[in-house]
Design a protein that fits this description.
Number of domains: 1
Mean pLDDT: 91
Low-confidence stretches: none
Helix content: 10-25%
Strand content: 35-45%
Radius of gyration: 14 Å
Number of strands: 9
Oligomer: single chain
Shape: globular
Distance between the termini: 21 Å
């Protein structure tokens, strides 16, 4: 069984994320996990939805989580990386000259969007 493709970041999503704040929801020994929020405190959920091409998926923001779709938390490290990253042509991101994909992960208790370096 192969892993599903990493969701792509569509044009404009990094700009939208840059206007949002990180709201801490959970902390463990290795990371802080949170969600995105507007400056006035409303949650903006990071979700993975169908992309433009058949079989593709992409990240998007939603005020309300659509039925059958999970909201993804992200680590503060991933949030900070997204703030200083620029979009890459293949739907990934580049920060400090290093390429990343924003991977959809189930960590056993929650859905997490995690920046993973591309080799």
């Amino acid at each position: 069984m192969t892993d599903p493709p990493d969701p792509a970041l569509p044009p404009g999503l990094l700009d939208a994320i840059a206007k949002l704040l990180f709201r801490l929801l959970d902390r463990d020994a290795t990371r802080e996990l949170g969600e995105l929020a507007t400056p006035d405190g409303a949650s903006m959920h990071l979700v993975a939805t169908s992309g433009g091409a058949p079989g593709s998926i992409q990240w998007s923001l939603a005020e309300r989580v659509p039925a059958g779709v999970a909201a993804y938390r992200l680590s503060r490290t991933t949030y900070d990386l997204l703030l200083r990253a620029s979009a890459a042509a293949e739907g990934g991101i580049v920060a400090n000259g290093t390429r990343f994909h924003l991977r959809a992960i189930w960590d056993g208790t929650r859905h997490v969007a995690d920046a993973v370096q591309v080799a």
